[in-house]
């Protein structure tokens, strides 16, 4: 068994209840790297920076942080990113930064750790020396009960950039943990903590069950001496040129399949069927060339037995729709915003493949715009493939479900079939342009009957289906391997602790 597997077992055997907390550092623990780097990159990209700011950041990076005074210098260097802006602007800046870049650095294995603690009813707390603007987005994503962060002064709604109180660096972070324990009446001797930094030894000492996550050298030595668990969470690295070649082959196969569909359509009375079969076959080849396996673990029979239906899937990656086309194959339709239909070549492929385009800006006529979809299901026996989240999530967390797909299923009188995807976001993150080799695992859940649904309760039914997705991801089957990888296949990252192959 690996250190990660041992830790998960320890959590699941720990006492349940909210008198126990799990404290998570942010930089280097929940994410790989340092989130302040993303702030500087964003400012450089927008040309909103000074030469002195870049100089200070480089010097601090070279010197490193070995004391609270050093960290105070880090905060001073990043102060121009905050000062003079409103508090709401900074929170929005933090959310945008998280979605566009920082979320890609999240350690998938830590989601399993967080989930295990949540299942035991433990309090989830982020304790970080970073500013609240950097921490709040991830706190919201993981459903943290509290975010302990370095706070900056706000006067009349305007951020001055001056640090309030003691920075949550080293001893300051440990002090914040003890203060929260008094407020919540926590049992720190039974609580957990996770971090990577040399400065966080006092933080780990403040709880009874510490763990070092891919620790820096000094912390590794301390952890080894004291017998603390060391979780080395190293995701596999890939050759960029290889990824470029695989990604190019994937898209080439997609367009080649579309071209085959066009040719078939010239000799067929059903242009849509010809395009759909051609694209599906092209994607089959594309996935093989890209090194991506699509593994249906359960419920494959529902891909055909429940039709016509509304297939709903969780959405985190650009690969989600190709995966769904690969699974559903044909006699299906989708919904896309009108702007996509205007894209050269791609828009024409979707149009020929039977996709219905709607004007999202005209929300007042949303129901009317969906009538062609309902007709296609009811009159032509097509199935609808749609993500009820509406947009790609930056993390594995399931977002809120919109009511539209469920209204369609109810009006057409067909069942809803949930298709749960896992690891698509690790193979190709929402903001990525290149595909990594890997396995997308799929569970198709039993059809959900909609015959008794009413318009006024559709929101409740949408929430109930969302809970099915959450339960499926929570109970996902996993096989343990002696080499430390807790995954069914060599390239699924969520449980992977090392990647020697």
Topology:
Elements: H1 3-13, E1 21-24, H2 35-45, H3 51-63, H4 68-78, H5 87-100, H6 108-119, E2 123-131, H7 132-142, E3 146-155, E4 158-164, H8 171-184, E5 192-195, H9 201-205, E6 209-213, H10 217-226, E7 230-231, H11 240-266, H12 271-290, E8 292-298, H13 302-305, E9 310-313, H14 320-328, E10 332-337, H15 338-341, H16 346-352, E11 356-358, H17 366-369, H18 371-380, E12 383-386, H19 404-412, E13 416-422, H20 424-427, E14 438-444, H21 458-474
Parallel strand pairs: 1-2, 1-5, 2-3, 5-6, 6-7, 8-14, 9-12, 9-13, 10-11, 10-12
Antiparallel strand pairs: 3-4, 13-14
Q: Which architecture of the largest domain per CATH?
A: 3-Layer(aba) Sandwich
Major sheet: order of its strands? 4-3-2-1-5-6-7
CATH superfamily of the largest domain: HAD superfamily/HAD-like
Report the CATH C-level class of the largest domain: Alpha Beta
Number of domains: 2
How large, in whole angstroms, is the Cα Rg? 25 Å
In helices, the fraction of residues equals: 40-55%
CATH third-tier fold name of the largest domain = Rossmann fold
* Total DSSP helices: 21
The total count of strands amounts to: 14
Major sheet, described briefly? 7 strands, mixed
Strand pairing plus helix content: what structural class?
A: alpha/beta
- Strand residues, percent: 15-25%
Shape annotation: elongated
Unreliable spans are 58-67, 478-501
Mean pLDDT: 82
Oligomer: single chain
Q: How far apart lie the N and C ends? A: 18 Å
Supply database-style keywords.
single chain, 501 residues, alpha/beta, Rossmann fold, Glycerol-3-phosphate (1)-acyltransferase, 2 domains, 7-stranded mixed β-sheet, elongated
